[in-house]
Amino acid sequence: MKNLFQVGMLIFLTTVPSAAQMAVAHESGKYFAASVPSSAPALNKPVVRVNGAVLTENDLQREMYAIFPFAGAHNGGFPAAMEPQIRKGALQMIVFEELVYQEAERRHLTIAPVRMQKAIADFRKQFKSPDEYREFMKEELGDSQQLLRARIRRALLIDTLLNSEISNKASVSLAETKAFYDRNPDKFRLPESFSLQTISIIPPANATPDQIKEARKRAESTCQRAKETKSYEQFGALAEKVSEDDYRVMMGDHKLVDRAKLPAPLLQAALKMQPGQVSDLIAVEQWYTVFRLNAHHPAGMQKFADVNESIRKELEQQKTETLRSRLSTQLRAKAHVEEL
After folding, report:
1. Among residues 261, 272, 249, 271, which one has the least CA distance to residue 197?
2. How many structural domains comprise the chain?
3. Claim: this prediction has a pTM higher than 0.70
């Protein structure tokens, strides 16, 4: 095995995937992959002691690679400017996980045999072949099924306590989302907006009079072709072919544009048009633009039914972060944590 931990095969036995997000993961039978390069120094070196339990550089590196899985794109390392913060967040996370595990043991939580068997089966499914599984077991766990079960049990205990103390308590009811919607009308007001596609012809920077004249000629020809289009798709195909603005790669589609953000000449034209119509040629500074109006949306309020789910997710995230912070504070208050 060239790398100490091969991508896709590490048992990242934790239930909190990112220190940056500070979010609680779901069922810990879903293990996280990470890769720690074989050149990583002194992986067995102790880095922190949590109520007597020693966590090593190995544990820290696994968490760092979980936080920043793109390290492989940096030759197996972390960007120098980011590494201190990644390391700090990873250290906080592994300490938190260990405290949660110890609390689960203190409460005498148990894992049902059927859940344990499913977690083991899910773990084995990560491997492409039986040979890869055997190689991992030999290199990482000394072929010890007992150690494998112990690590999986640890992850499931962490998951069980976090579900009890955080996930299950962070749920948000329909009444709560409706109350939030009613209390915060400004969050759900929609400005007057326009859905449009553009085709632009842009003279070169510092263009000569002849270059401007040539661009104007091309723009007039393009405008005529644009007016001959009969649909969103036809206008978009022409935009992809001839437009010189950045939206050409998206069929010229700007999606919804706030009225306040439209250049005055485009706004004046859009206010006189019906959806499906194509404008005349419009000069915006030195650009020449023709646009298709797809929709004109008056100012109004988003319907509760349309935003209920996003409100629920936002409120649940807030609850999750509050509950997690509270649990961390409680566990830390009676813990002895010593960085080594």
Report:
1. 249
2. 2
3. no
